[in-house]
Write a structure and sequence with these properties.
CATH class of the largest domain: Alpha Beta
Strand order of the largest sheet: 4-12-11-10-7-5-6
Low-confidence stretches: none
CATH topology of the largest domain: Aspartate Aminotransferase, domain 2
Strand content: 15-25%
CATH architecture of the largest domain: 3-Layer(aba) Sandwich
Oligomer: single chain
Helix content: 25-40%
């Protein structure tokens, strides 16, 4: 048995966790193993506790843990090779995964570039757009997006994340200055002629027109803004930005790192908007949470433009672990499960359960909104979430959650049973009631 006291002491003194202070850090929970939708925790006193993971490990473990099909894919690939460089070499897992992604996405997206993570895939997408405009001689270097978004923690993605309400405002003045339209009105099903939508569209078109000659591409998360605030917006928002880009010679980049592979109910959120991007970023759930892997898909037109002599002749990017064979093999097995398990039925079940299970939170004085989209359930508070207290309260009820800002939310694995989903919802509602009232 692990010496949990010693390990946590070393963790406290030497490890730096995500979005945390090295000076003052709350002790993390120690995970000993995971299986199905449960994390097995080990407490310092030696006792154990199993809790339901309501977060899918930051939205990627859509099939849960210790998945036999994914374990077998890993073992089979390890018997052949775990890694080989992709520069000048290729291999079957990368080719097969690219073939699958091309088949799953709109027909126009014919080129696949593998990256290490979602943030890096956005870096690559933005670099593609900039390099293309170098080749065409337009001199365009700015991006157009909407407030409330989040695209990653590396520098280019930070620059198109909300500069005021986002988590990277500290870097204002260092990051490139891009153009941000207002946060769209809330509601995936908001009518196109709704007054709020009409006003947003007018202001967005006016703002774009003022900067059109500088815009290399528009970039946004379709339907669901993830870490920027868990907001849902209408497909019309995606359509408006795509129309503006097409009208003015800019590219369309869709960031489906959080939404891809079924989370909002369709394989990709772009399907509800009927918009085909020039560049598409996918990641997170691609490997079912087993290894870090992302992909950037683009049109032949973009690929050839970036590869023109005037644009430099090659895309100047090449991660060491690009197209890692082990990750690609697991991703193929994960995509098999997405389809074999009928993800749309799974996510529809999550949506029904989350809608009914979280509804009682709407009656709490501390809650300003409760919203659900596909496999995403959100309780928005009137004040910043007391993260540690909420996590501990949910843990007492057998559920692991990770609130942030003013949001207590869940993105459970697709394989979560109705009974476990009910436990998740009850834990979230009761924890909010206990901690915030």
């Amino acid at each position: 048995m692990a010496d949990v006291d010693r390990l946590l002491a070393f963790d406290r003194d030497h490890l730096w966790h995500p979005y945390s202070s090295a000076a003052e850090t709350a002790p993390p929970y120690f995970v000993e193993s995971a299986s199905g939708v449960r994390l097995s925790l080990r407490m310092p006193d030696g006792s154990g506790q199993d809790v339901i993971d309501a977060m899918s490990s930051w939205w990627c473990a859509i099939h849960g843990y210790a998945v036999p099909q994914l374990d077998e894919a890993a073992r089979a690939q390890l018997a052949r090779m775990s890694h080989v460089m992709f520069g000048g070499l290729t291999h079957e897992p990368a080719i097969a995964l690219a073939e699958r992604l091309v088949a799953l996405t709109p027909p126009a997206l014919q080129r696949v570039f593998f990256a290490d993570s979602g943030s890096v895939s956005v870096e690559v997408a933005m670099k593609m757009a900039l390099q293309l405009h170098v080749g065409t001689g337009t001199g365009r270097t700015r991006f157009f997006t909407i407030r409330g978004g989040y695209h990653g923690d590396t520098f280019s993605p930070m620059s198109v994340t909300d500069p005021v309400g986002g988590m990277h405002s500290l870097f204002t003045g260092i990051l490139p200055d891009h153009v941000f339209a207002p946060v769209p009105p809330a509601g995936v099903d908001l009518p196109d002629d709704d007054p709020a939508m009409a006003a947003w569209e007018r202001e967005t078109r006016r703002l774009y027109a003022a900067h059109a000659d500088d815009i290399a591409a528009v970039i946004l998360e379709p339907l669901l803004q993830g870490a920027g605030g868990m907001r849902f917006h209408s497909p019309r928002v995606v359509q408006v930005l795509a129309e503006l880009a097409r009208e003015h010679g800019a590219l369309v980049i869709l960031d489906e790192i959080a939404t891809g592979f079924g989370r909002t109910g369709t394989m990709f959120a772009l399907e509800r908007a009927a918009v085909v991007p020039d560049i598409l970023c996918v990641g997170k759930a691609l490997t079912g949470g087993y290894l870090s892997l992302a992909a950037v898909l683009c049109t032949d037109e973009v690929a050839h433009g970036v590869s023109s002599e005037r644009a430099g002749g090659a895309l100047m990017h090449g991660p060491t672990f690009m197209a890692n064979p082990l990750a690609c093999s697991i991703a193929l097995a994960s995509l098999d499960l997405v389809q074999d398990n009928d993800f749309s039925t799974q996510v529809r079940g999550l949506e029904v359960g989350l809608t009914s299970g979280l509804e009682p939170a709407g009656a709490l004085d501390s809650v300003v909104d409760v919203r659900v989209l596909g496999g995403v359930g959100v309780i928005q508070l009137r004040e910043p979430a007391r993260v540690g207290e909420l996590a501990a309260a949910a843990m007492e009820r057998g559920v692991w959650v990770r609130p942030f800002r003013d949001l207590v939310y869940t993105m459970p694995p697709y394989v979560t049973t109705p009974e476990d989903l009910s436990t998740i919802c009850d834990a979230l509602v009761q924890s909010v009631a206990t901690v915030h009232g």
